[in-house]
Amino acid sequence: MVCIKLNTFCYFICLHVQVFGGDEDQIKAARLMKRSPVVVLSGRGGCGKTHVVSTVLSGELKVKRSQIPVDELTLQDVSQNSEIPQSSSQITSKDPCGDAVLLTAPTGRASSILGKRTGLPAYTLHSVIFSYFRWLKEVKNGENHSAWKFSGVELLVCDESSLISLKAFSTLINILMKKAALQQIILLGDKNQLPSIEPGNFLKDIYCALERYGSSVTLRTNHRAESQLIVDNANRISHQEMPFFPDDAKRGFISLCCQSKEDGNGDNSDDMAITQVVRDLLDNKISTVTLPEPQRSQFIAFRRRDCLNINELCAQHYNKHSIKNIKGKLDFQTGDKVCVRKNIVCFDAYSKEEVKFCNGEIFFIKEVIEEEDNHNKKTTYFALDNGEKIVKVDLKMLKRTKLCHAWARTIHTYQVNIFA
């Protein structure tokens, strides 16, 4: 049990309710961030939890940044900015105000998305905890005499908090209370989402405990109109009710009949039925739905073997090859949809800079490049496109990410990394 007594980090900002488009829940959440040391924002995807946090933080950092004397700015800040930055995206990693905010999430993919939306660096909870114990070890061995990297943290923001375990959060809070200047905690997530596989239901328990004090709020309005039916059906399913399938296929929620067939031994085989449905989808033989290109569609399955079967069908349909070669090893070719399954830092041969790959991140192989140096040593590179930029990475380094085909993924891995 952790007892916390905090002030608030976000108290300078003057709120302009117009930026929230009249959403009363978002306005309430923003005001709550100004006065409460511990805030819990719950809601499904698309309700604006991250928007509220990024809006309040950008205004708060702008005010605090303007109060810093110019002669206290680092040389890097002065050289890169002819004037004081006016938004959070302009705050450098050495900025004392930016360093006061710690954005975290339980997975690398979720932290990456949070960082992109707020314009500030974001980390996984375990990487912050690991950095502390590594720093502590270096200090004890006399190898490090500087302060801990996160010693200036005043505000902790945790996204996807329903996936956080009690043990990990307790460890992080104890560290920040002892070694940082923590003033405020903001938790984001969906209290109705499945909790961590470890004991406890962290977010829901915290939400209910703080609700009596008015420090938790649920954002109810879905601002992604195209996904409203999906949200409604997810709510029905969570209450063990049948989802609603509209007559209009354009509304995006369609039920396809998948009848089990018998294999050669006379046994029922769900695999054969699923395979036939996927083939019909790929060949556009189902009149009620047209499957978009792989960049805009994703197969989700409950079982790994279903994913393997679907990936095999997609590889043959789109790129005319099997997902495995004659040696039984995974075969990656130009045009394949792939996914990294491990957080790792790789070197981008295009930009000559290091790039971070997050577990769950999806790419398309744009090109397979074979290069030979002066010593006749051959190196294979993959040019990977994630929809935002193309990077060129050594295949040997990519193998350390546990690269796999990703036309189909299990629901357990997909829900964390994509809907984060």
Summarize it.
The protein is built from twelve helices and 17 strands. The chain is of the alpha/beta class and 420 residues long. The strands form five sheets. The chain has a six-stranded parallel β-sheet with strand order 3-2-4-5-1-6, sandwiched between helices. Strands 15-14-13-10-16 form a five-stranded antiparallel β-sheet.
Tell me the strand order in the biggest sheet: 3-2-4-5-1-6
Count of DSSP helices?
12
Shape: globular
Mean pLDDT: 80
Structural class: alpha/beta
Number of strands: 17
Give the biggest beta sheet: 6 strands, parallel
The helix-strand sequence is HEHHEHEHEHEHEHEEHEHEEEEEEHEEH
Question: What percent of residues adopt helix (DSSP H or I)?
Answer: 25-40%
Radius of gyration from the alpha-carbon trace, in angstroms: 24 Å
Residue runs with pLDDT of under 50 for 5 or more positions: 1-5, 74-94
The percent range for strand residues is: 15-25%
Ends distance: 28 Å
Structure description:
The chain has helices at 24-35, 49-66, 75-80, 108-118, 125-140, 166-179, 202-211, 228-238, 270-282, 304-319, 395-399, 411-417; strands at 38-42, 101-105, 122-124, 155-158, 184-189, 216-218, 261-262, 268-269, 299-301, 337-339, 344-348, 353-357, 362-372, 378-385, 390-394, 404-405, 408-410. The chain is α/β, with parallel strands linked by helices. The chain has a 6-stranded parallel β-sheet, sandwiched between helices. A 5-stranded antiparallel β-sheet has the order 15-14-13-10-16. α5 packs across α6 (166-179) and α9 (270-282) runs parallel beside α10. The longest helix is centred in the first third of the chain and has 18 residues, at 49-66. The relative contact order is 0.11.
